[in-house]
Structures
1.
Amino acid sequence: MSVTSLRKLPAILVVDDEVRSQEALRRTLEEDFDVLCASDADEGMEILEREQSVTGIRIVLCDQRMPGTTGVQFLREVRNRWPDIVRIILSGYTDAEDIITGVNEAGIWQYLLKPWQPEQLLLTLQRAAEVWRLQQENQRLSLDLRTAEPVLKRHVDTKQEKVKSSFGLGSFIRAAGSPINAVCDLVHRVAPFDLSVMVTGESGSGKEMIAKAIHYESRRASKAFITENCGALPDTLLESELFGYKRGAFTGAVEDRVGLFQQADGGTLFLDEIGETSPAFQVKLLRVLQEGEFRPLGSNRAVHVDVRVIAATNRDLEEDVRTGRFREDLYYRLATISLHVPPLRERTMDLPLLANRLLESSCQALGKPVEGFTKEAMACIAAYRWPGNVRELQNEILRMVALSTTPLLGADLLSPRVLRTPVGDFDDNRPADELAWASGLNGGLKERMDQLEMHVLKEAMIRLRWNKSRAARELGLSRVGLRAKLVRYGLEQAE
């Protein structure tokens, strides 16, 4: 083995019947290549058969005119047996027919003319070595991809299943008999079909979760789910966000912007608070829904998209249609299917399950482990009407976890508005506010005042963690007087 081969230089086979030409090529190339030489095609073939598995010859540089055979004929055989080798012809003639034959039949990578220049020859062969390296890398990558394809497919399928479980119907926490069950059943039935859906419900009730469930239960699940709050932007900004614009369309448009409709192509676009849009914008939105195309601001060309639109609102759009505030044709275009999400106060049976699930996510978000709720805290949570729905419940539990100093979250950590709610059983359907509750008390004035006093006492004791001294000071009572009232109302044992 030559000294150069110990340096692991790329190997090149030079086939030339002229000895002086061989030596000149060797001297030029030996600093950058492990050079092997052959005087004719037969010797070149013997070297290839002997050395290819050991040395790994990357390039064959062959003279075109040799006794017995031509360079193209020899390199055609090389191509058939070792297709990865980069093949180069060295010729003193510029015969067009030879060049065409060499490219088509022997896969010649390059033709070099005699007399050759050392710098040009060396640069060409260095590029040839890089071509060989890139070919090998491409083959390895192709093999890796073929090998990994089943694994990647399983990984993608698994990821899609995880996404579906996180955002699909499996993400809904609900008890048996919950009103949300009927909504989930309807989602399951309509999700596979490309129909526009209108989701109605109070703020924070989970309208976006319903929209995500529809998307991830549909055939569009692998595509984008894009959200836009229509009530947060004026018409001009909303139009540029949804439809995009071209550079120079208006002052400040320094580059093209792809709109959300185009970003959601093949997927789903969720338009929240659709009832807050103006009639002028509703006309533009209606055209997109009818024609499936739009023009970015400043463009003369229409863009075609395939987007499923899901809209949501907390308004009574049917009333808005009657008063002319919302276009009737747009309403019926959006509300092919209508879904109403019940408020949390109508899902009291879901509250314990939902509260515990939100507690888990809150502990993860804050990095603070908590074991659960006290019975008293859960009773207060179940009694409150949650006008802000799930969003309010989530914020309340986050607050409790942040303030907690014990493994269990006590009722004293609740916000005053939650704590002051009259506490009953989990299935107790309380009126909408405390004044209505007070007006619904039974008995004469004294009995009603006693019930109200008991409620005030219990709220204060829970909030102050049953500290009688602090409660007595706050309520303007002596400690003895407070204790007497607690005994009278049967609250002393609650401590």
Note: The chain has 21 helices and 18 strands.
2.
Amino acid sequence: MLVRALGAPVATILIIAVSLLIRFGIGLHPYSGAGLPPRFGDYEAQRHWMEVTVHLPIQDWYTNTTDNNLDYWGLDYPPISAYQSWLYGKAIQRLEPEAIALHTSRGYETPSSKTLMRWSVVASDILVFIPAVLACRHVFFKDATVEQRAWMLFAALLQPAAVLIDHGHFQYNSISLGFAAGAAAVVASGKEVLGSILYCLSLNHKQMSMYYAPAFFAHLLGRCLRRPTLLTQVGAVARLGFVVCATFACIWAPFLVPPSRAIEVLSRLAPLRRGLFEDYVGNFWCATSPLIKWKQLFSQQELVQLCMGATLLTVLPAMAQQIRSPSRKGLLLCMASSAFSFFLFSYQVHEKSILLPLLPVTLLAPDVPALAAWLPAVAAFSMYPLLKKDGLSLAYGALLLFWAAFTLPSQAAPNRTAASGGAQGRGGSMLSYGLPLIFRTSVGLALGIHAAAAVLDPPKRLPFIYDALMTALSFLHFAAAAVYVQLLLWSQDHEKSN
């Protein structure tokens, strides 16, 4: 009622303003590695990349030299991340050159430099992510009610996990996620070439965007195969293939000559040296590792093959559906399903990788309101071991309470719109009516683990038992969500693609 009384424009401005205010508030808290020499953390990595890209020639950005020790936070993201570091580094250099001075700025931490760095993340949201979310709302929910459009914007901009990782822990995931969201909106509106370019930008900002590759490939192939003749089908595929190759060539141009330089960059992007997983992440391999010692039973090569096979096996059904019957909202569901497959089963998954399935789920919030309210809270919970190390417990608790106050109570009741059709179909209705029990059980277990960790010391033989319990509980939630999204993708009556 309040949203309707305010009107769509005012509600949009208010939600964006609140989302920015909360980002600034989270930014007042600590960040990854604050005051922890000798390597500090992700904050220092981002600052160091600015230092390297501003002061060294582009050919040396990914090369181990006397001025660029790759063992100290060497660049390990694709070229657009490096270009972004250069751009923000140039801006910070003009305002506080000591913050990115070559060699002497390692571990540089001042209140003013922290403010500049925090502002750069907010700028990324303003320039890339927020416009992409607004574009998705216009394309996918142009004819939705004022309340539904407001809920979609709220879910996408204020889901706790993304805000805590980018503006607390300190990262720039909003850029790659923004490009991916923009690509989905553009493809859904019929502009396949521009959409392919935007997805290439996302993939070349962070290699995690590979999680969406099966969805975009299947959807675009399905659209191409709907052309009337074999010649036009082949032509459509060839055109998109040329666009992708040309986009990659432009982005990678400084690193293509000699070819060995490109191979050197690619070797920096492959995380095989880091092992099957790091720390505590709510995926299959980590959750089952207390029972099955994967790293002891299999060699690294065997684990890579095992992960590849499991990921491919679980992603194929969603791909097949979109090739057979591509649709606008089906693209978002396929993105979620594909990202879940990669998160749950691929090699070297980080806690932050859950942001990839979360994005399309929140973009579909009006159609899957229960899932869009419940899953972001679980995702934030799954990240707590990481956030706790960063000193973000207070920010975590406050943001989860804010999220719960505005979303979970209203979504815990059976959804009145579930029977009205839309992308939810029967699956959405089932989840909506089952959510009260799921919600109470999830909250009860999560609060129980938090309470136990707060008042009871872990057993000496199991010092990380609470982190492991968080991981296991999160995995069960994510696996259930992945199955639900897969079933929803196949069971719903998709709208016809353009």
Note: The longest helix spans residues 425-455.
